[in-house]
Write a structure and sequence with these properties.
The structure holds three protein chains of three kinds. Chain A is mainly alpha-helical. In chain A, about 80% of the residues lie in helices and about 0% in strands. The longest helix of chain A is centred in the N-terminal third of the chain and has 41 residues. The two termini of chain A are about 45 Å apart. Chain C starts with 7 loop residues before the first strand and ends in a 9-residue tail after the last helix. Chain C is elongated. In chain C, strands 6-7-8-3-9-10 form a six-stranded mixed β-sheet, sandwiched between helices. Chain C has a five-stranded antiparallel β-sheet with strand order 13-12-11-14-20. In chain C, strands 15-19-16-17-18 form a five-stranded antiparallel β-sheet, with no helix packed on it. The longest helix of chain C is centred in the middle third of the chain and has 17 residues. Classes of the chains: A mainly alpha, B mainly alpha, C alpha+beta.
Chain lengths: ~300, ~300, ~375
């Protein structure tokens, strides 16, 4: 920035490039570090609080205990919530894939009248705030006696899941060369054989990515479950919300312990999911396919 | 799915003059393959469109029989309800603008750091997986008057008394940045890596400096992606609910649209009013998106990748 | 080989329209068993459409396709028994070379033992026996191409369709594969329909050439015939008749079989009976340097391109007209020369007989359909 001698009018033009090139390289790490420190701070607060005995006006609690995990496990019926969460997540993923995959295929491959409108229709559930359609959906589900049941929670959660699968999968299908399907057809394969032997294996990375994202989304999605669930059909996150909302009834440390259990659950789900699919691998596979067919 | 086997096999041993309307329909893309969208479409109609229409119809039937538009009149004449629009915007707009503006230089810097990309990705994906409720719970302690943030601030003498970061819109905005920024960053990063690096090189050979390359090549190419990212983070921020009730002041400056709708439905059991607020929420949000996307189409529309499939 | 017992494949007035644009109009062609037919034309001429209609990947708008007396155009592609080689190979990326080749046989429920035997045979045929377990992306372009060919011919198809199969290869490999294709065609007694935009490729491979433009057949015939006697100015241009002149044709006194041409500051005598406005086409290698007494044109050499065996030179005859000649003696730019145009090498086409002549090159219709 400190340039001397050059006429004033040319100065900004010449010094700005250097500034732009220079600033991000240290700003980048400071910004990322700032973000990560705060992230660790908020996660750390929860973890520390869950193991602490009394924590008022000090940096760390006065003593340490695991006692509150037992309290949390007992008083929030966490075992039930865990089972519900896992059940809901996996059923929603399955339904989402079964309904979304064929639709994604057609939307990627075909042009037809009304396609744009249909795409918009599939985008809307992701775009509008869940609470806006969640309230009438919940009202409807209660009328049909699904309110408060596990089925109701699953139904509500599939609403954003199916569009999500379509959104993730469509580009995956698009980058599979349609000539590969034609080639299979010329090898006497019928539509079902093409799907099973050609498309399904080629789409696997996309299917896994879609499954993973829907899984994460469903575990973390609060509003819809909050609106539809009742006692016995609440997922962890809704349980946690009620616990935080009504804090004061139970010791704060127990709520923190519950939050830690929730974090561990999502972490385990994420680790299991990432064992089967890593985001970088998806990209690599997609690129690989592209090169193979284009080369 | 098992019906696929028969979908594309026209086993018709049709006479020589095949009806040409079928051919014409097929040219326009209407054939049996289209049935594959049917399950998802049916699902959309039953679980999204039907409830939405039901909600819209319900919103025009106020409980106090104040006429067709009663709920809407009530919303716009009641300052407490009307104020929710302003509250929602004053939380969602700063948060999403910050997320996008911060994400652009960082994503551009990230492009040159391929090796650290993986670890940064993992660090950033974490808050997305944690979800809004957990972030809210964590921030309650972290940002509280006796939390670590205020301890540090007071420790280094930046402030005498704890900053009021909770139970006002600041807490909500911070939580929206923590959950929304990674999202914006990853999206912008994917748009950045979609830009053909050859264009930057080409501009360089033509004598463009770094700032000229940024403002005249990268930024215009990135602008549709920026608009899309802004829309998505705005959507996330606009539907703020758990953080507004937990971290904010849900009867004051974080009385947002979603909170008003939920209160109407579950505290006053006034479903028509709740539906009306939902309709207003959706309309306002979609209007905002339409404006941004409208601006986007005036900026630059075309391929960012050139040649890269 | 076996099961190929058909005598002729007939395309009867085949038409294909897409969204109101005619991609192929009234196309009739009979292909004999064992024939190698090349469909030639610029991009958007309808050659790929013809191939996809034959394959069954595109439906016909009108017309019919018969295999001997059986109508096949209503059959889906998987029941026609044709093999196809795609432009970018379209190999299945998730399968090994062996599995790619075996796929079609598996679809036809051939016994496992038989599949192994046939795949071994096909791998040997394309000289890739030791690469059988590799994935397509581990192979070079030429090897991938050979796998694509093996995958098509291992099914012993009645007809092999090839869609610009060599266009992604470099020049040297392209030449080798050309020889290879010709060898396979002869050894296996295949019937082949081959689509290309490369006239050299078409001339060297085909028994019969079909030139297309804007969805219409321009000429069909033996390569030598099409090359030596293009049916119109468009075919001539495509066959490398680089000198195209707009001239006026008149009678030659005393000889009704001759035509006197004038235009662009040149006078020529040619065979033929065309009168009036005409397009004249001459191949560069039809011109020679030196004076013979008839059709001698003086000019100045402007550019010289060395082509390995000979030179392609541009001769400026006057301000408006230049001629291209292919000669084997060395000249330099600026030399004063006299070119001679032998009468037999001058093609004369009546102008106006061919209204689409120029428009086609400027505005090709690209059929953008996903097949």
């Amino acid at each position: 920035m400190a340039m001397t001698g050059t006429p004033t009018r040319r100065r900004p033009r010449r010094s700005l490039p250097r500034a732009l090139r220079f600033v991000p390289s240290w700003l980048f790490w400071i910004a990322i570090a700032f973000f990560v420190v705060n992230l660790l701070g908020l996660v750390g607060t929860v973890v520390v609080s869950s193991f602490g005995t009394e924590w008022f006006d000090s940096w760390l609690p006065q003593g340490w205990t695991t006692h509150y995990y037992a309290t949390a496990w007992g008083s929030f019926q966490l075992a039930d919530a865990l089972i519900v969460t896992v059940e809901v997540a996996f059923v929603v993923v399955a339904v989402g894939l079964v309904l979304g995959t064929p639709a994604a295929y057609v939307l990627a491959r075909k042009q037809f009248p009304g396609k744009k409108l249909l795409m918009l229709g599939f985008l809307l559930p992701i775009m509008v705030p869940p609470i806006t359609y969640g309230i009438p959906l919940a009202t409807l589900l209660y009328k049909l006696h699904f309110g408060g049941t596990l089925t109701g929670v699953i139904i509500a959660n599939t609403v954003p899941a199916v569009p999500f699968v379509i959104l993730v999968l469509t580009p995956f299908v698009e980058q599979i060369d349609p000539k590969i399907e034609s080639a299979a057809r010329m090898c006497s394969a019928n539509t079902w054989q093409i799907f099973r032997r050609i498309l399904a294996p080629l789409m696997t990375p996309g299917l896994l990515a879609a499954a993973l994202l829907v899984l994460i989304q469903t575990v973390a999605l609060f509003e819809l479950t909050f609106l539809v669930s009742g006692p016995g059909s609440q997922t962890l996150i809704v349980d946690l919300y009620y616990a935080v909302f009504a804090s004061g009834i139970r010791p704060e440390q127990a709520i923190s312990a519950m939050a830690v259990i929730y974090m561990l659950t999502t972490l385990i789900v994420l680790i299991i999911a990432l064992r089967y699919v890593s985001p970088t691998q998806i990209v690599a596979q997609a690129k690989g396919n592209e090169e193979e067919t284009d080369a | 799915m098992s019906s696929m086997g028969t979908l594309d096999l026209p086993r018709v041993q049709a006479p020589s003059a095949q009806p040409s309307w079928r051919h014409r329909l097929r040219d326009r893309g209407i054939d049996r393959l289209l049935w594959l969208v049917a399950p998802a479409f049916l699902f959309l109609v039953l679980l999204f469109i039907y409830p939405s229409v039901y909600g819209i119809v319900l919103s025009f039937q106020p409980m106090d029989h104040s006429g067709f538009l009663g709920n809407y009149v009530r919303f716009f004449f009641d300052p407490f309800l009307r104020g929710t629009i302003g509250h929602t915007f004053s939380i969602a707009l700063p948060a999403s603008i910050f997320n996008v503006v911060a994400a652009i230089p960082l994503a551009l810097a990230m492009r040159r750091r391929k090796r650290s990309q993986r670890i940064v990705n993992v660090l950033l994906v974490t808050p997305i997986t944690l979800g809004t409720v957990l972030v809210a719970e964590g921030l309650l302690n972290y940002l509280g008057p006796r939390g670590w943030v205020n301890r540090i601030l007071m420790g280094i003498g930046l402030t005498d008394k704890p900053l009021p970061l909770l139970h006002n819109m600041w807490g909500v905005i911070i939580s929206l940045i923590i959950t929304g920024f990674p999202f914006a960053f990853l999206l912008i990063l994917s748009y950045v890596s979609g830009i053909n690096p050859a264009m930057d090189a080409a501009a360089r050979t033509l004598g463009a400096g770094a700032s000229q390359r940024f403002f005249r090549i990268t930024l215009p190419l990135l602008s549709p992606g920026i608009a899309n990212t802004f829309c998505l983070t705005f959507v996330l921020a606009f539907s703020v609910f758990p953080s507004a009730t937990l971290l904010g002041n849900p009867s004051g400056d974080s009385h947002v649209l979603a909170v008003a709708a939920a209160n109407a439905a579950f505290q006053q059991y006034d479903y028509p009013l709740a539906s009306a607020i939902s309709v207003i929420t959706a309309v306002v949000e979609l209007l905002m998106i339409a404006i941004v996307l409208g601006l986007r189409s005036r900026l630059y529309s075309g391929s960012t990748a050139t040649g890269k499939g | 080989m076996s099961a190929l017992a058909f005598t002729k494949l007939e395309l009867a007035a085949v038409s294909r329209q897409f969204k109101g644009v005619t991609a192929l109009a009234d196309f009739s062609l009979t292909i004999r068993n064992g024939e190698f037919v090349a469909l030639l034309g610029p991009s958007g001429c309808g050659k790929s459409t013809t191939l996809n209609c034959l394959a069954g990947l595109l439906p016909l708008t009108a017309g019919a396709i018969y295999l001997d007396d059986e109508r096949v155009d209503l059959l889906p592609p998987e029941r026609r028994g044709f093999g196809m080689v795609f432009q970018n190979y379209a190999l299945f990326p998730h399968m090994s070379v062996r599995k790619n080749i075996a796929f079609g046989l598996q679809m036809q429920r051939v016994s496992r033992h038989e599949i192994v035997r046939k795949v071994d045979w096909a791998l040997d045929l394309i000289h890739l026996t030791e690469h059988g377990d590799k994935r397509p992306n581990q192979l070079s372009g030429g090897q991938q191409q050979r796998v694509a060919i093996a995958r098509a011919i291992v099914m012993e198809p009645k007809l092999v369709l090839m869609d610009e199969p060599l266009s992604n290869l470099d020049a040297k490999l392209r030449h080798e594969m050309r020889t290879e294709l010709r060898r396979l065609h002869r050894e296996l007694n295949l019937t082949t329909v081959y689509v290309t935009h490369d006239q050299e490729e078409a001339l060297s491979l085909a028994d019969r050439l079909v030139v297309l433009r804007n969805g219409r057949m321009q000429q069909a015939g033996a390569p030598e015939e099409v090359y030596a006697r293009p049916a119109n100015a468009f075919v001539a241009d495509f066959m490398g008749y680089r000198n195209q002149l707009s001239m006026v044709a008149g009678p030659v006194e005393g000889d009704p079989t001759l035509t006197r041409l004038s235009g662009g500051g040149i006078e020529l005598v040619a065979n033929g009976t065309v009168r009036g406005q005409a397009t004249v086409a001459i191949r560069p290698d039809g011109l020679t340097l030196g004076r013979t007494g008839v059709n001698d044109i003086p000019g100045v050499v402007r550019t010289v391109e060395y082509q390995g065996r000979d030179y392609e030179i541009e001769i400026e005859v006057n301000e408006t007209t230049s001629l291209f000649a292919r000669i084997n003696q060395r000249v330099t730019a600026g030399d004063q020369v006299v070119v001679n145009v032998p009468r037999d090498h001058v093609m004369v086409y009546a102008a106006g007989a061919d209204p689409e002549a120029d428009e086609s090159r400027r505005d090709p219709i690209h059929e953008r359909e996903t097949v």
